[in-house]
């Protein structure tokens, strides 16, 4: 089964979970789901627009999943990410991983999320209730979180 | 011939989503392609393409400006990514 | 709604997820699910027996959830843990948390799992396919993981 | 009167799940209760209850052996926990 899904239509977290774990789940499963916020620093968010780079997105997410699999010994992983126009409370991204032990599962899932934020070609634009829209600026702390995974001395 | 793509703020600032470009010589670097684009489209393009945080992707991989662009490649310019 | 469930009957991860996030999910949701392994160091596991201390279990889990909520600013959390005799691939434990940002959500969920392992009065006994059964020994590394959360210099 | 409970390996080693105990004096500590239990049940109980990794819980909270046990309390002895 395809482990990376990049799609404009919404998805169902519970269905993705079933696809990840299958009939015989591994010992430890960690999932992350990110949803559209109803507010941001500039006001109330009505909708979130997600531009993406078709082709590159899928290939980057596949590489990140494979890196996590090799590094943390994941038994399985799955990444779903939407693009297009999303409403409040819509799911944006879902990452699920299966490992033998909980620590590897937490690390694998967090590694994928931290690297996906800065490495997968998506760009968010928030549409506010006053009719304005603005691109979400990349955050310095996202770069720092990503960098932590590539420091040789780091033993998270 | 290569394909050049622009995304997000870069796309908006240039008013172009995609264009085809004939390489002028073999072994052109990403930097040389950027200079070439500026020479064709004017100084406004310099302001956009030479912003320090512009990301360059060659055939779906992030690269630096010293990378050579091969015939048939897909080159993209965009701001820092904000997925997840 | 009750945020801690300690029960002998099995539970459904998808139902628990819906109960956690409700109709308007927060921005970041992290879940952990632990399942019965089919093997251990001593052989093939046929069943897992979980003894618990009724009353103390619920009260410890409630305190751990409240600590995570205060420390990581969780919007919501939920802990489900089984006791009794479990079969291979049965879910043992499920922890789900909702936070404003992904880092707090990951930390909150991992904090609950790391402290639950050593602080909630459960004792596992593995029944093997050769008819033998043995209590699972507590692991030094579980104590260490718990201790990390209480080191003042720790900024995970 | 207090209630004393035993779990897991401690329960199995003693062959007892629960018992009621009349405190001999006010302000008895957990340690004093352990000594009292050994004095009533014999040296085998010392081997079990004085194992260095035995956990003591008083009214559902983990305590150390210097804690005083009040009338009506629930005191429990068990090995390190292995949940999750």
- Low-pLDDT stretches of chain A: none
The count of helical stretches of chain A stands at 4
Radius of gyration of chain A: 16 Å
Counted beta strands of chain B: 5
Written description of the protein model:
The complex is a heterotetramer, with two copies of chain A (156 residues) and two copies of chain B (84 residues). Chain A has 156 residues and is of the alpha+beta class. Chain A has helices spanning 13-21, 56-72, 102-119, 140-148; strands at residues 4-7, 28-35, 39-40, 43-52, 76-82, 84-87, 91-99, 122-128, 133-135. In chain A, the strands form two sheets. In chain A, strands 3, 4, 6, 8 and 9 form a five-stranded antiparallel sheet that branches. In chain A, strands 1-5-7-2 form a four-stranded mixed sheet, with helices on both faces. In chain A, helix 2 (56-72) runs antiparallel to helix 3 (102-119). The mean pLDDT of chain A is 93. A five-stranded mixed sheet of chain B has the order 2-1-5-3-4. Chain B starts with a strand and ends in a 6-residue tail after the last strand. Chain B has three helices and five strands; from the N terminus they run E-H-E-H-H-E-E-E. Chains in contact: A-B, A-C, C-D.
Present the secondary structure layout.
The complex is a heterotetramer, with two copies of chain A (about 160 residues) and two copies of chain B (about 80 residues).
Chain A: E1 4-7, H1 13-21, E2 28-35, E3 39-40, E4 43-52, H2 56-72, E5 76-82, E6 84-87, E7 91-99, H3 102-119, E8 122-128, E9 133-135, H4 140-148
Parallel strand pairs in A: 1-5
Antiparallel strand pairs in A: 2-7, 3-4, 4-6, 4-8, 5-7, 8-9
Helix pairs in contact in A: 2-3, 3-4
Chain B: E1 2-6, H1 8-14, E2 18-21, H2 30-41, H3 43-49, E3 55-58, E4 61-63, E5 74-78
Parallel strand pairs in B: 1-5
Antiparallel strand pairs in B: 1-2, 3-4, 3-5
């Amino acid at each position: 089964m395809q482990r990376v899904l990049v799609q404009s239509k919404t998805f169902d977290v519970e269905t993705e979970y079933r696809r990840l774990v299958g009939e015989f789940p591994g010992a430890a499963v960690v999932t992350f789901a990110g949803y559209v916020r109803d507010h941001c620093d500039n006001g109330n968010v009505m909708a979130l627009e997600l531009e993406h780079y078709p082709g590159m997105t899928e290939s980057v997410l596949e590489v990140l999943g494979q890196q996590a699999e090799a590094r943390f010994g994941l038994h399985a992983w799955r990444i779903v990410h939407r693009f297009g126009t999303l409403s409040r409370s819509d799911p944006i991204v879902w990452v699920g991983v299966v490992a033998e032990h909980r620590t590897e599962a937490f690390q694998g899932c967090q590694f994928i999320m931290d690297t996906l934020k800065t490495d997968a070609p998506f760009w968010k634009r928030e549409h506010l209730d006053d009719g304005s829209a603005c691109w979400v600026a990349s955050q310095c702390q996202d770069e720092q979180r990503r960098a932590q995974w590539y420091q040789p001395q780091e033993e998270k | 011939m290569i394909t050049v793509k622009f995304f997000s703020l870069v796309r908006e600032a240039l008013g172009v989503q995609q264009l085809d470009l004939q390489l002028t010589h073999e072994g052109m670097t990403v930097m040389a392609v950027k200079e070439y684009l500026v020479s064709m489209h004017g100084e406004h393009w310099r302001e956009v393409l030479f912003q320090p945080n512009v990301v360059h992707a060659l055939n779906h991989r992030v690269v630096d400006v010293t990378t050579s662009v091969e015939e048939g490649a897909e080159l993209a310019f965009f701001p820092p990514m904000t997925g997840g």
